[in-house]
Amino acid sequence: MDSIVVKGGGALSGQIPIAGAKNACLTLMPACLLSEEPLTLTNAPRLSDIRTMTELLRSLGAEVTSMQDGRVLAMSCHGDINTRAEYDIVRKMRASNLVLGPLLAREGHAEVSLPGGCAIGARPMDIHTDGLMLMGAQIDLRDGYLHAKAEGGKLKGAVIDFPFASVGATENIMMAATLAKGTTVINNAAREPEIVDLADCLRAMGAQIEGDGTSRIEIQGVERLHAATHRVVTDRIELGTYMLAPAICGGEVELLGGRINLLQAFCEKLDAAGIDVTETDKGLKVARRNGRIQAVDVTTEPFPGFPTDLQAQMMALLCTAEGTSVLEEKIFENRFMHAPELIRMGADIEVHGGTATVNGVKKLKGAPVMATDLRASVSLILAAMAAEGETKVSRVYHLDRGYEHVVTKLRGVGANIERIKE
Ligand SMILES: CC(=O)N[C@H]1[C@@H](OP(=O)(O)OP(=O)(O)OC[C@H]2O[C@@H](n3ccc(=O)[nH]c3=O)[C@H](O)[C@@H]2O)O[C@H](CO)[C@@H](O)[C@@H]1O
Ligand SMILES: C=C(OP(=O)(O)O)C(=O)O
């Protein structure tokens, strides 16, 4: 199992290229199941989750070719389709649940293993299944699998009011509705940039969708979708993560491909904490203003609010802020597993339920720590980059799910970091 060793150092400078979004690409890939013609994605990130989705799509009968060192994914689904998404693959990754809508729309039935929970919390699918049932699907849970069948073999349009703006449910229903008979309306839809990216891709495939990026999305079903090529949107979570590197360590770093509108709420918190963010021709420049970082309170919310996927990294910043910060996690019930590890590095954090209170200390100190999930892993690396001495982060395989070439990217701006095999 690999570990990452970081020696805390001084200010950073240089540029970091930002990849295509994991959470967009994992949604765009299952869209290939909606058409007999090929779907090509460019700007794909090189991540283990993408390889898992490739394995899942192949198991369903899709041809997936990875080109240009994984940057381009060509997917084609013209033959017979296997409609059963097996537990052995689905359990590896929450995003596997995104094949349900496309399989049901194309074949009229599907059997998809429930993803269950993961380290950060439960990953229920009731909002997805309630929506599909309104579209005429019959869905039962048997042997850990959702067995779904469309009445008469074809889904029909429906008006669906979500009780919560679920990202995954919006994506599943949007994909299912592209081939349904009639019009589907999703009220209280998720508004994340990854939803807009999916809508752009589906439109390029011939789907009729309006309202993405707002809380009301309307999809007019069509007979078939066709071939398309689509560029995956910039990864706003990778962007925000690397924006925190100069914020924590000092110096100035340019994030290539970044835009403020992907992370407005996050940028406002950085400003309040004493970090300057400016848009350039190529991306975003981030620099820490003089003096200590200031404490800020953060509440995670659906987009356009502060993203849950940046809460752990923000906590790493606030550990050394002047004053007390309160972080409230509103999306996942168990997303503070980085707190005990940051405490091992000298942070002063108290967690009560979904609230973490961080009393800023002057300096963190290197320690052996353990990565518990994807964003927790990278928060420990960020904290270690400004800590005194050496930190060893073990179980970094979590990191490979969401960050490509993290060591190369951080070394490129001056961090003292290496990956070791044990
Ligand atoms: C709103 C939000 O921030 N969603 C995040 C969520 O998307 P993801 O699609 O995984 O999660 P959802 O947006 O669906 O769900 C978030 C919340 O809704 C609840 N829920 C969800 C579906 C359902 O059928 N029933 C239900 O109760 C979940 O338990 C959770 O508390 O994780 C992704 C990372 O992997 C992030 O990129 C998304 O930004
Ligand atoms: C938790 C994440 O991913 P997933 O939903 O795929 O587990 C994430 O991207 O931070």
TrEMBL record:
> What GO MF terms are annotated?
UDP-N-acetylglucosamine 1-carboxyvinyltransferase activity
> Binding of UDP-N-acetyl-alpha-D-glucosamine: at which residues?
94, 309, 331
List the GO biological process terms.
cell division; cell wall organization; peptidoglycan biosynthetic process; regulation of cell shape; UDP-N-acetylgalactosamine biosynthetic process
Q: Does the keyword Nucleus apply?
A: no
Its pathway, per UniProt, is:
Cell wall biogenesis; peptidoglycan biosynthesis
Q: Which residues are noted in the entry as phosphoenolpyruvate-binding?
A: 22-23
Q: Which keywords describe this protein according to UniProt?
A: Cell cycle, Cell division, Cell shape, Cell wall biogenesis/degradation, Cytoplasm, Peptidoglycan synthesis, Pyruvate, Transferase
Q: Which reactions are catalysed by this chain?
A: phosphoenolpyruvate + UDP-N-acetyl-alpha-D-glucosamine = UDP-N-acetyl-3-O-(1-carboxyvinyl)-alpha-D-glucosamine + phosphate
Q: Which GO terms describe its cellular component?
A: cytoplasm
Residue limits of the Enolpyruvate transferase domain? 6-410
Sites where 2-(S-cysteinyl)pyruvic acid O-phosphothioketal occurs are at 118
InterPro entries for the chain = Enolpyruvate_Tfrase_dom, Enolpyruvate_Tfrase_sf, MurA_subfamily, RNA3'P_cycl/enolpyr_Trfase_a/b, UDP_GlcNAc_COvinyl_MurA
EC number per UniProt: 2.5.1.7
Q: Where does the protein end up?
A: Cytoplasm
What's one Pfam family the UniProt record gives for this protein? EPSP_synthase
Provide the active-site residues from the annotation. 118
The record's family statement is: Belongs to the EPSP synthase family. MurA subfamily.
What is this protein's function? Cell wall formation. Adds enolpyruvyl to UDP-N-acetylglucosamine.
Which PANTHER family does the UniProt record give? Answer: UDP-N-ACETYLGLUCOSAMINE 1-CARBOXYVINYLTRANSFERASE
What is the official name of this protein in its record?
Answer: UDP-N-acetylglucosamine 1-carboxyvinyltransferase
**What species does this protein belong to?**
Sulfitobacter marinus
